[in-house]
Amino acid sequence: MEIKVLKDILSANDHIAESNHTLLRSKGVCTVNVMSSPGSGKTSLILETIRHLRQRVRIAVIEGDISSTIDAQKVSLENVPVLQINTGGECHLDASMVNRALGSLPLEEIDLLFIENVGNLVCPGEFKLGEDLKVVILSVPEGDDKVYKYPLLFSLADAVVINKIDLIPYSKFDVEGFTKAFRGINQSAETFEVSCATKEGIDRWASWLISKTSHPAP
Amino acid sequence: MEIKVLKDILSANDHIAESNHTLLRSKGVCTVNVMSSPGSGKTSLILETIRHLRQRVRIAVIEGDISSTIDAQKVSLENVPVLQINTGGECHLDASMVNRALGSLPLEEIDLLFIENVGNLVCPGEFKLGEDLKVVILSVPEGDDKVYKYPLLFSLADAVVINKIDLIPYSKFDVEGFTKAFRGINQSAETFEVSCATKEGIDRWASWLISKTSHPAP
Question: For position B28, what pLDDT does the model report?
Answer without folding.
Answer: 96
